[in-house]
Amino acid sequence: MSDTHKIKQTMWDKMAQSPFLMVGLTGNDQHSEPLTAQLDRDQVDTLFFFVGKDNRLASGGGAMAQFVSKGHDFFACLAGEIRQDNDPALIDKLWNKQVEAWFPGGKSDPNLALLRLDIASAELWETDISLSGRLKMLFGGTIKSDEDSSHAVVETTAV
């Protein structure tokens, strides 16, 4: 297994544990906003988000999403296109109790929109510093390259 394959797998594992990202459209002055990703293992390089139709991202376009893992040991910046995909079968597949709490009208709520972010590229960082590296950080030593983190720039997050 290559290092790139491993770091991609780590990203999806970490995101499954804590699927919260900051997502924003590129090319405008609007800030990113926190969203909960719905992961579908059948669709590679795609994240899904349930939002209101009046959400600033609902118009779609170029987008960036930033992810920080629960343990703050993995970081990702994902770039791609975001658009609405209101396929009833997909909504049914991704629907859960947490989403239902936001949409009182259920799957047929008139304000419901399912966004999909098709990832075109990503930059991934894993900060799994070794024990000796952590001790050096604590006492001001120099960390060697084999004691620090992993990094990858990828065109696909498929593992």
TrEMBL record:
Gene3D superfamilies: Electron Transport, Fmn-binding Protein, Chain A (2.30.110.10)
Domain General stress protein FMN-binding split barrel: 9-136
Tree of life domain: Bacteria
Pfam families xref list: Pyrid_ox_like
Annotated protein name in UniProt: General stress protein
Lineage: Bacteria, Pseudomonadati, Pseudomonadota, Alphaproteobacteria, Sphingomonadales
